[in-house]
Design brief:
Elements: E1 2-3, E2 9-11, H1 18-27, H2 50-77, H3 91-94
Antiparallel strand pairs: 1-2
Length: about 100
Amino acid sequence: DFTSAEGVFLGGQILPGPQSMARSLRDYTARLPLVEAAPMVMSDYCGKNTTDAILSGINSAITGAVFNAVWPFCDDVGVPVRAFLTGGDADFLTAD
């Protein structure tokens, strides 16, 4: 969700969580396995096996979605912003 400095709701985004992404890859592809989506430190830009490639893709989708939303918002408001991570999947953005 995006709010003004006064707390007025400006809009938001809804996207699938990591477990939904993992299930979708298993359910809607021919042969990909179900993996337990978990935050990972990405030491490389891609996975070197199927499981790591799925996990890398899920992590990249989540971080990419956040960056693609937050940076334009920062540009629009033109002032420093604060971001708060909440929920069980916040670790996908804070894994180290």
